[in-house]
Amino acid sequence: MSVRTTVVFTDLIGSTGVFEAVGNAKATEVVTGLTGWIGETCVAFGGRVVKTLGDGVLAIFPEGPGAIEAVVEMQRAHQKNMMHMPAELQMPIRSGVASGEVEIVDTDCYGDAVNVAARISDLTGPNQIWATAESLVFYEVSEGIKLRALGPITIRGRAEPCQCYQVEWREGESTEFLTMQAGLDTRVGDLSVDVLGGQIELACIDARATFKSFELPVRIGRVREVEFLVNDPRVSRTHARIEWRNGSMVLVDVSTYGVWVRFAGATSDIVLRRDEVILHGRGELALGASFNDISVPTVAFSVT
Q: Residue 274: inside a domain, yes or no?
């Protein structure tokens, strides 16, 4: 039976380390408890659990808004719960959400939306939610939620990229940490060209270098051992890392004071503190301080 639905794929990050740290019996108890709770949360918001996959849960929802509300509530509740967990048992959640036609066979489901939800979940970082544009069409952004456009994302094994957004769910954070909410463009547009290309150019004062996807990861920092050197005391020895993940350039902050990201044409900056973001198009990185400091060391980037 073919139905149009919204698929949520959610899994726990770091379960392998938990098994190593506390042993099979305790780890199994914790993981199954968390996946059971994830399933209950999906059901509470109108979803149906299709199956659990070790430390992952696959669920389907009749509409996109219910799916988004479920994963947001899941993240918020889990974040509070982790504050009371021993460090060795903490496993952040990540989620991918996609809408489309799926085939229901017995109690299982198959289709492009299932594959996309699983793939974008794999691309997300800890505590992140990524959703396709189609899954957000009828979603009315509620208080405390913002959407960050990620652009077309290349999905392994899929001919066309997907227009994706990151759902920012953290309440009470300064808005400088988030992009401002713009109207969601439900027109996916021309996806025949993926803006997340196969190379990135970095430039800082008199230094310039181009790195192809197969040369990644590269490190930005102030010691000679890194691949891109920025000699400034505010820059950490290794300040940031650029990785290639299934067609995406991902900037990961590993510094003491953070990275500010400014995309060309954007109305606000993104602040990373031990966080990550997909780089696309052109823009600048401010290392160790915001762009408001005119002396801050900056790195221009161009993804082509």
A: yes
- 152 and 224 in a single domain? The answer is no
User: For residue 195, what pLDDT band results from cuts at 50, 70 and 90?
Assistant: very low
217 cis-preceded (ω within 30 degrees of 0): yes
Same domain, 86 and 140: yes
Q: Please tell me the pTM assigned to this model.
A: 0.63
The total of other beta-carbon atoms located within 10 Å of residue 11's CB is: 23
pLDDT reported for residue 171: 62
48 and 164 housed in the same domain? yes
Task: Give the span between the Cα atoms of 4 and 121, in whole angstroms.
Answer: 20
- Report the domain count for the chain: 2
**Which of 124, 142, 177 is the last residue in one of the domains?**
177
Per-residue model confidence as pLDDT tens digits over 21-56: 899 999 999 999 999 999 999 999 999 999 998 899
Residue-range definition of the domain harbouring residue 267: 199-303
Distance CA 241, CA 216 (A): 9
Residues 203 and 161 in one domain: no
Say if residue 93 is exposed, middle or buried (CB neighbours under 10 Å; 0-12, 13-18, 19+).
buried
**3-state class percentages of the chain: helix first, strand second, coil last, to nearest 5:** 25, 35, 40
CA pair distance 302, 278, nearest whole angstrom: 12
- Whether residue 50 contacts residue 39, with contact meaning beta carbons closer than 8 Å, is answered with no
Contact 269, 261 (CB under 8 A): yes
298 forms beta bridges with: 286
Residue 246: pLDDT band (50, 70, 90) is: low
Cα–Cα distances (Å) from 63 to 1, 8, 9, 105, in that order, read: 17, 11, 15, 20
Residues 150, 97 share a domain: yes
Cα 85 from Cα 270, distance rounded (Å): 30
Q: Which tens digit of pLDDT belongs to each residue from 118-152? A: 988 887 878 889 999 999 998 888 778 888 877 77
